[in-house]
Amino acid sequence: MARHLYSCPLRWSDMDAFGHVNNAVFVRYLEEARIDFMFRLAPGEGSESFQGGSVVARHEIDYLRPLVHRHEPVTIETWVTKVGAASLTVAYEVKDADQVYVRASTVVVPFDFDRGRPRRITAEEKMFLEEFRDDADPAAPDAGGRRGTAKEAVAV
């Protein structure tokens, strides 16, 4: 199982009046990491996997500690926890080497915008997603007492 790593820059405008990254901004961070994962790493040269579009059906976010503006980017680790016939669940940790700021998940539905309806996940997409699949609950502690640790990471 591999995990996708996305280096996300922090912007001055991401902060709120309390001096930390606003909770709504984290949704944009997750979107950036998910799009980088699904579109940039889509399988096959010239593949049309994930190119037809997708919609978000659900977000679930646990805010664990405040993140303040700095010049160094934050790492967003992304992996897949579920692949269904017409949906998938992407899990994330927004983190540094020594701490996790946010744990989240998103249910994504591939969508055919020409027909105006959801579509099934193709065999090629499923094969790609399975490379990044980890059924473990990202909120459950591992043997070392840490939560959601990576077994293998793919940096881009």
Count the E strands.
7
* Biggest sheet record: 7 strands, mixed
Specify the CATH architecture. Answer: Roll
CATH topology: Thiol Ester Dehydrase, Chain A
Alpha plus pi helix count:
2
Weakly predicted, low-confidence segments: 140-156
What structural class results from the helix and strand content? alpha+beta
The geometry reads as elongated
- Helix and strand sequence: EHEEEEEHE
Approximately what portion of the residues adopt beta-strand conformation?
Answer: 25-35%
In CATH terms, the superfamily is: Hotdog Thioesterase
Computed CA radius of gyration, to the nearest angstrom: 16 Å
Give the % helix. 10-25%
Q: Can you give the mean pLDDT?
A: 85
Enzyme class: hydrolase
EC number: 3.1.2.-
InterPro entries: 4-hydroxybenzoyl-CoA_TE, HotDog_dom_sf
Keywords: Hydrolase
Q: Summarize this, please?
A:
The protein has 156 residues and is α+β, with helices and mostly antiparallel strands. Helices cover 17% and strands 33% of the residues. It has one domain: Thiol Ester Dehydrase, Chain A.
SSE layout and pairing:
Blueprint: E1 3-8, H1 23-40, E2 54-63, E3 74-83, E4 88-95, E5 100-112, E6 117-118, H2 123-131, E7 153-155
Parallel strand pairs: 1-7
Antiparallel strand pairs: 1-3, 2-5, 3-4, 4-5, 5-6
Keywords: Hydrolase
Enzyme class: hydrolase
Protein name: Acyl-CoA thioester hydrolase
